[in-house]
Structures are given as structure tokens and as C-alpha cells.
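thread: overnight batch results

M.L. [08:02]
morning all. the overnight job finished for the chain we discussed friday. pasting input first so we're all looking at the same thing
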Amino acid sequence: MDPRRHPRTLAGALALSLVATAAPALADQNFYINAAPMAHERGAPAGPFWWAYFASSGSTGFFSTYGPYLRLGPYEGEIVALSYLELQPDYHTTLAADWDVYDGAQQIFKQRYSSYDVNQTFWPAAAFRTQPKDIQVRTRHLSGGNISQGDVRLLWESVDKVAQFWPAVEQLEMHDLGQPIGAGDWVSGPNLPGCGSSCPTNNYISYGPHSLPMLVDGSYVALFHVETNSGSGSSAHLFTLQVEVWDLAEGVYRMLASWPVLGSDLRGNNVSNALPLRFTVPRGMDTWFNFRLVRQHPTITIRQSGTKVFKVH
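M.L. [08:03]
and the structure it wrote out:
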């Protein structure tokens, strides 16, 4: 057992100094999928969800939902958009849908979801900064079956961020590979500490920071910030993002969320990617956490900046 990753085994473990903000009375904004300002080109309410069917065809599809045309202020910091999406494809058919975020007339995020022959549930999320414009979160049904959608949420850094930590500050001694760079970042790659001409995979670029007393049971989004020098747009598995919590009853860490990040998940090389990972802390867990970036590619250089944690109210 590595005591660095299991701080409860260390007598008198060091307390960590974390940047934390108390959750204000104003929480995240939840836009009910079946009511204005959310809108629809086709479909119907189904309880708390919006249901839209489209058989396979050569059409470009339609927007099952869009909105809320929310005008943002200039000092909101980073914003995280969340939703719920279930794909129910027709028999032996591929159902696909595009989920995107528009800032005025500019598309600032897009992700395609698809499923063949089996129902699948997704939790789309996107993080962005913007000047004051009308924000839309949209789903385009591309045919092949039924789409069921849940509410759209927007989390605001100015009111919903509950913690922030840096890999070269609060996570300073919590690395298998790499070295500090800049004011608080961490970099790992060939010919840097822990690597020769290539780096071992399944090693931690960072983990910890362990003590996060503000994260009691509930739902959260961890917003990792990662930059790579290559690999963007490829199908290669570059790294994995993970969130674990210490289980008091069992005396082990429990995995809450894991995301194998591919090159296609990144918006470019040599640019910072804000990567949101949603997780839920069950009742009865401790407030000791591992936020881990696990290296999976041997030759790319990976730079990690600060991680922010948002509360989903």
C-alpha cells in the first residue's frame, strides 16, 4: 500500500491548504426541459422528460430541444452546462444525436452521441467562458429511433465553485511522473522525471489532494484543465480522469467516476482543455478524495493546471 495515496494510514497526515468558497444561497440554474425558455422543433413531453422520435432517413434531422437563450454577464468565470440524454435506437439501427453549446451565433462545443441496437444513457457536459451573449444548449436528433432528454443545468464559477486546487501546490507530493512548471502547473512527458524517451502508462501525473471537507454527500462536477502537445483529434487513449472517495466502513477508496479521454475529446493541441467529470458522493463516505490524472499514452507531453469542483444543487 502506498501511504501517499492512502493518507488515513499516516499518523498525523498533513492538512492541505485548499482554495474553497462557501456555496451561496443562489445555486445553479435548472431549466425544465418541457417549459420555456427551453424550446423544441418536434416531440412531446413524457413526464419530466422530452420525448422525440425520428425514423432512419436521409434527412439532416431536427432540434428536439434548444434554449434557453440566456444572456450572460462578463464576470461569470467558467460555466458548466449539463444535461441528461437517453438514446433508444430502433431494432438493428444506429441512433445518433449531436449535443452542442452555442454562444450567440458561434458554436463553442459539440459532441456526437450514438448507440446501435441498445438503449444508452449519457450525461453531456461542457465547460466554457464567454462574453455577454445568448447561450443555447441544443440537441439535434439525427434519426434512428427515440431520444429522451432531461433538464438543462448551468453551473457558475462565481456561485457554484466549492473548491479549487493546483497540482504543483496542494498536490505537490502527489505525482508519479513529471515536474512543476509555471506558478502551479505540472508537466509530464519524454525526458522529464519518471520518463526516458517514452513514459510508462498507468502512472499518475497527479492524485489527491485528499482532504476536502466541503465535499459532503451530493452531486458535483470536477473541472480538470489539461493541455497536450499532440494527439488532439485522434482516436488514441491519451489519459484517464478519475475521482475516488475514501469509504470509512470498508477502509478503501471507492471509484466515483472515470473518463478515458481520447484525442477526439480535446479541442486542440497546445491549448488548455476544460474537461468536466460529473460524480456523486454517497452518504456515509469520508471527505478524503483522489482526483487523478492517469497517463495512458507513452510519448505525448501533458500539462495539467488547476482543478475546480462545482456543486450541483
